[in-house]
């Protein structure tokens, strides 16, 4: 055995695959963490659902068709918005630094992490959908698949923003959670994912129009109901895609600034 | 393997002040050498290591590592080096074996080769039973050995170890070094490590580079540094301070003895040949009617070298956390500019007290020759 630095020629996609696989490994080794992430949305379904079912069900054939897509977006929001804290931990304890000294493309460290959000999110969403089928939720097959894809794109975007925030405030983890809590709840309420905003005050409806989550929620409701070609679906993908691109750009910029 | 020219790094502190953590270092390291970068916290050694390993871009000068420029050819450098930083290299939620395999894959090993290499390394480092354990459930010593496995999986030409044994107990320290040396011998890897443990640098390095305030203040083998910068240390204790002061004058007048100081009843000095100087000093004291109650000479240590070069004891300054801001690569806030070495600290008690005069006569120092005290 003698010192030989092996030849290493791999493209960005290969690097991203390595990073994503590495990030998914702890999830695969401990799937229980996915179940824990489902507790809150399942409570919402259990406790909020009956209220919605017996009360307002705006513009849908079945109340679950209105409520379940909103819960799926909530999983995407809460499941990925806090993921930056893992990166913050890695930044502080040295494991991220170790990866910076490897030949991995710097951008792959970020993109690979962000793409990892896709898998657990979709798994969780599938579980929620399957749980709700016995209660009368009837998702459209093709629309449902597109809905999961949309959720994944949104999750990657929010995860990227979370990573960008984590890098930007890496020395102050309290700041991460302060921003996290401050931003998340207004976004959630102003998206109409749990309660309809149609009867709300005008200012709320105006703010909701500028909230990308609103468009994703509306798109999800259309997709799971089988209305695949509505403008809302287009706006939803546009909002999720823009979030993802913005998250990538901000995250890569933060990473570059942090390493210089 | 490494060649730097006027390598510098300046940080901007939060108040806008410019802090020069590394100031124009010229350094060369030959293939298969083991080099220790020694210095107190805040000296700039970690900043130097981070520049050489491409973690931090230099703000001045040049550095070539394994034949490539760290600034313009960083990816090529990263392909050829291993790095064990001060923190934990393995992700806390990852299993030990997965991290080693992933590192191998990152460096281009195919899956089978990476697994085989990981198994070999984990066995060699005594971690085979912990291979499937999450790293957060491993002890500090185990995690350090895992970091080493990660750093070595791709058989790097050059391995950087940034304070690899900080926080480990002596047994774990020795254990880790056994592995590093064994693997270095087998692999022919060049090793550059930073430390503020004097004994570690003395025992493990072919060559020591002493860094202080961002500059290289000495460079050579441990033996060369001791010979060049320290000399044997003499310690004589008298019955009272008054006679000690007389003895100080006597010893200072002896040929081949220098830097003679007194603290209380204890006189210390440096001699080119301590074994010869000590009996002469005792005889001279007896002739003057001075009672020497204890006397000792010992070989110089690296701390003596550091003291000689800077006027400070590395053992003391090494424990000062206030000056360590740049050790993690962040802005430095506590380093002041300082020109040239001084030999005595001014802020100690008494006008003739030097930094090394702490705690009475030296007794039982390793490698030393003890001469029994004599009564007049």
From TrEMBL, chain A:
Pfam families registered for this protein in UniProt: ABC2_membrane (PF01061)
UniProt keyword annotations, A-Z: Antibiotic resistance, Cell membrane, Membrane, Transmembrane, Transmembrane helix, Transport
GO biological process: response to antibiotic
Key word Transmembrane present: yes
Gene Ontology MF annotations: ABC-type transporter activity
Start and end residues of each ABC transmembrane type-2 domain: 32-258
Chief localization: membrane
Bilayer-spanning residue ranges: 32-52, 64-82, 118-137, 143-167, 174-195, 233-255
PROSITE patterns listed in its UniProt record: ABC_TM2
GO cellular component: a single term: ATP-binding cassette (ABC) transporter complex
Topological type in the membrane: Multi-pass membrane protein
Intracellular or extracellular location(s): Cell membrane; Membrane
Family: Belongs to the ABC-2 integral membrane protein family.
Protein's name according to its UniProt entry: Transport permease protein
Organism per entry: Nonomuraea fuscirosea
Lineage: Bacteria, Bacillati, Actinomycetota, Actinomycetes, Streptosporangiales
UniProtKB/TrEMBL annotation, chain B:
Record GO terms (molecular function): ATP binding; ATP hydrolysis activity
GO biological process per UniProt: response to antibiotic
Subcellular localization(s) per the UniProt record: Cell membrane
Span of domain ABC transporter: 2-238
Region of interest: Disordered: 316-376
Main location: membrane
Topology with respect to the bilayer: Peripheral membrane protein
Record flagged with keyword Metal-binding: no
SMART domains tied to this protein: AAA (SM00382)
Pfam family, any one: DrrA1-3_C
Residue spans of biased composition, Basic and acidic residues class: 325-359
Gene Ontology annotations for the cellular component aspect, listed alphabetically: plasma membrane
Protein name (record): ABC-2 type transport system ATP-binding protein
Native source organism of the sequence: Nonomuraea fuscirosea
